[in-house]
Amino acid sequence: MLNNTSLPNSFAKILALLLLVTGVFFAFYSIIFGSPYYPNIAPAAFLDTVAIPLDWVNLGTLSFPIQVDNFLVFQEFHSLPPAFTLTESYLFGGIVFLISVSALALFSTFKKIPFLGAGAGWIILLTLANSNGLNIGTPSSSTPLIILISGTILPVIYFHVWKPDASFLLRWFSVFLTSGTALVTLIKLSSIDNPALYLAEQSLIIGLGMAVSWIFWQGHGLISGIYVLLARANQNLSVKISWQIIGVSALYILTLIFLLLDIKGEVNLPFPIFSPLYLILPIGILGWFSTSEKLGQVTDIAAEPPYLKALYLLGFSATFWVIWKLDISQNQAAEEFLKHLILYSQFGFSLFFIVYLMSNFLSVMDSGKSVDKILYKPFSLPYYHLRIGGMITILVVTIYMDAILAAQSNSLTTNILADYYYQTGKKLEASILYENSWTAFRRNPKAKNATAQLLFELNQPTLAKDHLDESLAEVPQVDNILLLSSRMIRENKPFEAVFYLENGLKRFPGNPYLVNNLALIYVKIQKPEDAFRLLTENQTAHPVLASNLIALQSKLQKEQEKTESGNELITRINNLARENFLAEPSNPEDLKNLRNALEKEASPMLIHAGIRNLFSIKSFTNTSEDIAWIDSISKREDFLDYLMQVQETASIRSLAAGRVSESVKNLNGLAFRNPGDAGYYLNLTAGILAQNIDFEKASKDIIAAEEKGFKAFRPYHLTILELGGFSEKAAELREKYQVPGTAASDEFLILISKFNQTTPEKLFDQWKALSSAEWKTNLSLLLLERKAHGLTKFQLNEIGNYLKGKVENEEKLMAFLQNPNWADQASLTSFMEFFQIGDELSANPYRTPLILSAAERLQDPLAQYELLNSASEFNKDPMLWIRKVQAARRIGLDNYATAALQEMSTWLTWDEIELLQGVNY
């Protein structure tokens, strides 16, 4: 007898229970959520653009949008190589080591014959684990196997033969030390790459052997456990539990038959079926009751009941850990092998247990007595017949299933070795082994995908595509279809890619990965309606499809109901682009959340796309803060590929805040630094200048844009050229680019074509002479916004009276007109709030009243001159230039003042200039 026999309850059982609980958690987590390592299908994002109206030019019949690009983020799915499972492999190897040590320590308590059987079984497992592959001494030598057998079996033999009274703790720690020493020795002596990983991967053989042994041990555990519980529940009731157990047994046997038919794959069952792996939990729970009864009733057992119960829990936990490992590593051959053995053993042993039960206990099971107490007593010949009959049934079922176990066992061991080579970077060896694994057993998706992936990496695309074609023909799988179609796109064969994806959808209807990629290729081959239909019908299948649908709606300019969008960053970016395209107001809270998400994002592509869309909205608040953020982003090393676009975003943010001079200068700088995109930038500045009635500068930018390759001319371009004094160029472009429509300018446009360089007094007289109410209203607003500095209070009020009832924010206008004093802050605020132009006085150089007001607020004469001079680079307002002349003279720059007067003479007469100088402004 062992000393301290209570120790198994306090150590062996606790360790076994701990391994069991964690094993159940890990196994069910992987079964429910799947392996994160294979299939390794991930979305890859790419950008497209859509032109959105940031602002509009509305000058009578001259109306067009000032468009900037917003980004649409499309995502396509790619099949990536299976990810490494190094951490999981080492963890599983450690778990198998602990279970093995515990099992060996328990084996040392066995009686002679069971001990010999357990020892023989352990040696067989070590042999199957292919430790000879460690190549110690010579390739494939038996030295590693000898070391392992010595390190694990010798201490067990020692305790069994010479120290039978040793405590269990001493046995466990002794086996732990000797086994650990053997493993360390193997790792140190081995000449292969990463021998620790090799042992960790090969430990699956040992774990699988333990799991299979436990499964066969509990071959009738579910039915016998149910019988024990029924017998206990019906004591003293005289209920016919025979009918109950027959009904339950029939239902269970029928379920097993359906599961067998399902995994054979020759019958399509009309109802859903579950994985045989889910049977392990009820088998283990119910089998505990059956095993406990057996250990209490049978006297001649292998060891003391507490030790056998601990061994039971170890086998139970080993099975769950094996399930986890198989799901993580996606060794499908091993998983199918385990499923088959579960069904074979349950069917064979359960069927013969029912025969054993009915033939021996039918006469007493309905008596209401404690019939569960005699289930295994005496342990007689009929029970051995049960086991023998069960084994024969297993052989029969194996033959019926075409002896698939042989192919599975061959494939699973090859797959284990392939995983080792794959994770140690030996691609050629891994590809050969994965190919052999798939050849042996076709229901092996990881092996086929890994083969193709590795062949592509080994620069053997033809062979890789042959493997993928073979997979599509024999055992189609989604990731291989994605890989093959992606390769076709890479080789510029989009129609072949469509063929594979369409055929894939016939085999996997509604698969979101195939639907998404097919829709994107439809767009590429000019089938946008088919793409839109596909995404619309399947948008709820995956968040990526919904996000791509939002982007496609904008790209195709589809007027659709708002698509349900999620909280993913890409979806938010696309949704904002759609709102900007439709000129819909955005929720401020959504904009805030998007900015917060962008500040936490790591991808430069998504950040730059997000800030572009975020800052393509007119906003006069926090402009400097936003531009500082953009500037800080542009300085990051990972943004070098997006530097130009980020700088463009800064210019757009300036434009959205009304900073015209800053935006135009930055865009001109971008045009200079990026000749390939200069036409786009110059066309954009032309629109900004035309909005500010500077048709001359706008025309020059249009001409420069055409020289840089811009060709997308519209009628409004020709109108701007005519108004800017370039009629011949307008006619040339009309003929050259076949611009439709007419460029004829109406009276109002001709009137305002020289608006900026005309004096306020002359413009007021022209305003009074207008007969068209629409033209007069438009000119009224222009006079107030850009020429109010040169109008008297009477003239301003006359304009204000005309606008009554025709404008919004009328109370703000009236507040300004009551005291049109540019030095009064309240009056100035009313003026700016009426025009809704923010609070920066010098943002737009064409708003002369605000520029002059800003200059008056500066105490430094040099600062005054610099502000006025900067504005005069854009604006030819006569009074602005006179103030500039005066400021230049105040700081002693008489030559600059004279040069400015000389330049003014190009659009004003000297009499007008003298008059302006004589007036005390």
Explain the overall architecture.
The protein is mainly alpha-helical and 921 residues long. Among the domains are: 84-208, no CATH class; 220-403, no CATH class; 476-537, Tetratricopeptide repeat domain (Serine Threonine Protein Phosphatase 5, Tetratricopeptide repeat), CATH 1.25.40; 758-834, no CATH class; 840-921. 68% of the residues lie in helices and 4% in strands. The chain contains 42 helices and 2 strands. Strand 1 and strand 2 (62-79) form a beta hairpin. The model has no long low-confidence stretch (mean pLDDT 90).
The average pLDDT score comes to 90
Number of helices: 42
**Biggest β-sheet: count, sense, barrel?**
2 strands, antiparallel
Strand content: under 5%
* N→C terminal distance: 117 Å
Total strands: 2
How does the helix and strand content classify structurally?
mainly alpha
Q: Give me the side-by-side strand order of the main sheet.
A: 1-2
Q: What is the rounded Rg?
A: 42 Å
Shape: elongated
Percent helix range: 55-70%
- Which blocks of ≥5 consecutive residues have pLDDT under 50? none
In short:
By secondary structure, this protein is mainly alpha-helical.
List the helices and strands and how they pair.
Elements: H1 7-33, E1 41-59, E2 62-79, H2 86-107, H3 112-128, H4 143-161, H5 168-189, H6 195-217, H7 221-233, H8 241-264, H9 280-297, H10 305-329, H11 332-361, H12 381-400, H13 404-423, H14 427-440, H15 445-457, H16 461-474, H17 478-490, H18 494-507, H19 512-524, H20 528-538, H21 543-555, H22 569-581, H23 588-600, H24 604-614, H25 623-634, H26 643-656, H27 660-673, H28 678-691, H29 695-707, H30 715-723, H31 727-737, H32 747-752, H33 760-769, H34 773-787, H35 793-803, H36 810-818, H37 825-835, H38 848-856, H39 861-872, H40 878-890, H41 894-904, H42 910-918
Antiparallel strand pairs: 1-2
Organism: Algoriphagus lacus
Protein name: Tetratricopeptide repeat protein
InterPro entries: TPR-like_helical_dom_sf
